[in-house]
Design goal:
The chain is an alpha/beta fold. It has 9 helices and 6 strands. Strand 4, helix 5 (105-112) and strand 5 form a beta-alpha-beta unit. The longest helix has 18 residues, at 182-199.
Amino acid sequence: RRDLLAEFGLPDEEEPLIGIIGRLTVQKGFDLIEQAGDWLAAQPLRLVILGSGERRYEEAIEELGRKYPGRVAIRVAHDNALAHKIEAGADAYLMPSRYEPCGLNQIYSLKYGTVPVVRNTGGLADTVKDADADPAAGTGFVFNDYDPGAMKDAVSRALAAFADRPRWEGIVRRGMEKDFSWEASARQYVDLYEKALRKRGRKW
């Protein structure tokens, strides 16, 4: 976390650090981030954004960084090493995709102990459980409607949880314990195959 803050020239303070990585397109929700940019910069958090894509969104996030130095840091680039540094060093990861067939960044975030804040769509819905809706099993914060207000609400809920350190640490731990490996998937396929065989009255 300290190394990431130094990389972007941000102060090392107690406020949560939120990371965003991705192609700067509508699919990845950058129209929501553009609309909510001033609001995000006014919250008790620091924001780092890495990505490249449509020029209008590159210009929008660069302007956001210029308006809020010390609070919002921008890198318009494709940089895999820095992307993993953000995943590992941020406290939370914002992924407000319009649609997301699978999604990998939220899975990286869970493994790194970075709490995902995502929209309830596709692979994001499959891999992140809302910590308010399911306090015992929640691993992140999920919003449904594709609009800035719903995203702001999810971010606000994440900030409230961050202020409750024991609760936040529980969310982090549950996320890190998730197993989305091929080994886990293979076990599920084997279980399904065995159930099908039992239904037909056969054995391996």
